[in-house]
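Figure-free illustration: sequence to structure, shown twice.
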Amino acid sequence: MQGRGVVRAKAPLRLSFAGGGTDVPPFPALEGGAVLSATITRYTFASLRPRADRQVSVTSLDFDREVQFGVDDPLNLDGDLDLPKAAVHRMIDRDAAGFDLFLTSNVPPGSGLGSSSSMMVALVGLLQEHYGLTLTDYEIAGMAAALEREDLGIRGGLQDFYAATFGGFNYIEFEADRVVVNPLRISPDTVNELEATMLLVYTGRTRMSDHIISDQTQRYVAQEPDSLIGLRLQRELALSMKDALLRQEHDLFGSLLHEAWVAKRLMSPRISTPEIDEAYDEARKAGALGGKVTGAGGGGFMVFYCPFDKRHLVAERMTALGLVVTEFAFTAKGLTTWRTGG
């Protein structure tokens, strides 16, 4: 049943520590993938306001774009806000009135923090709440993934949809037709320590992840040795880093983060750039134990683990290179929906 009043939703973005790429087909079906990630206090937001007529409007505040269509109109994928249009088309009640959608995020698109997948999760959660549907967390994440990967044909992995839906620190396993989210009981001391020793750095450059993902997938299918080694190491390191977090071995976690970046670079030459290499090398010289690009690569955000007394030196060096150092915190909350009067 369609609800009344304004509905809002938010879904967190994530830091992927290791395993990225092993969640991209065909690797999960052939070898089984695993990813270690955690959600942070950066979000995508979606808001729905009912209308009295049978029109739908979608406004993206990030792209400064608006599209309108009728409840009964066929899906028109023309490159203009296709992501929210696909979500509405799949979930809309064609016997009900329309609505206005407003979408925004507090990070730039192409940031490497999983913002597009997070937005899809927020949209599915928003429409579920609006129509009074009952979906499990797995069903929400699965529907969001199907919309982006199948309906829209956007290449990529699956981890971001599950991270945004479930929230918190998770070790996520991927098989051919099965995903298992293992929530981790991370000590509050460890969470505080990571927030005190990690840096999130924006390179100032966004990227199109699908080109990088296509390249690494082609290399895996062609059985290129470096790609095979890199992907398999990613899966192993996700497990090792999970154990380090649970055992509160913080510096080991930081060192493994370095190994994860070395392994990730083996997967495709497009993952890094001269600017990223320079930033990473300078961060290590300033004292960082490890770090990596947070998404597929090519730009967006980088994350570093630094001994507490070196963190400020790494931050100063990144700022001197013209990068933007930002604070962040972890959040255990995943997708959240609520109703409001306006």
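We now fold a second protein in the same way, so the two outputs can be compared directly.
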Amino acid sequence: MIEGFESREFTAEGFTRTVYEAGQGPGVVIMHEVPGITPEVLRFARYVMDRGYRVVLPELFGEAGRPFSLPYAMREIAKATCVRKEFAILARRRSSPITDYLRALCRDVHARCGGPGVGAVGMCITGNFALALMVDPSVMAPVLSQPSLPFGLTRDHRRALHVTDDDLVCIKRRVASGETRVIGLRFHGDPLCPPERFERLREELGDGFEGIELSPKDANPESPAPRPHSVLTLDLVDREGHPTRRALDRVLAFFDEKLRPEGAFASA
């Protein structure tokens, strides 16, 4: 259990996962990064909850609440790469199988929480999942934080978006219509989220993609990670006016824009 969160089992598309939820308002599905639902991921979730949203955290790997450590992270990356069938680490033009489950979860959250749709935040190896979820009309506010799949072995991998060609057509159509847009976040110099990926997103989505790229000098100097990577969690400097905090504030404002149109929900 995580303090302050309810838990339940959710089954869809052949997968069952524990899902943690808290808060009231439109739904925001947060897909955590490696190695799991760390205290820093929970801090971000509570910021979203305090803004006036129902936060939904599916446990995709790792141990909920366990702090980050490099050995823990390496163990979970190895599992995702070599063992787990849910993740297609090197796929360039298709999504990981777990995204079908996550789309079903988004539909469930939307049906229960109401509003125009849900927000979806992916981080690290789940970062591109928020893009893949956009083929479902329930997803109105997708955020890609340091999207890292597929791993950048070649130039084609670094430019790839981890979605099928048909899904990309659907995503582009939704963005071009003005129905929604996409926010992406990364640190300059992050090899796990190469610049080519953001270049491709700008090529495909035009002004419908809002890329926020930060200097590695702005990363949390006390982060236990070996290099700047996790914009909203480990590398966040939680101080008003700091570049990483401004990035967090922009994400929260994005949810307000897409999930509370014309005052459909009172501000928190």
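Summary for the second example: The domain at 6-262 is CATH 3.40.50.1820 (Rossmann fold).
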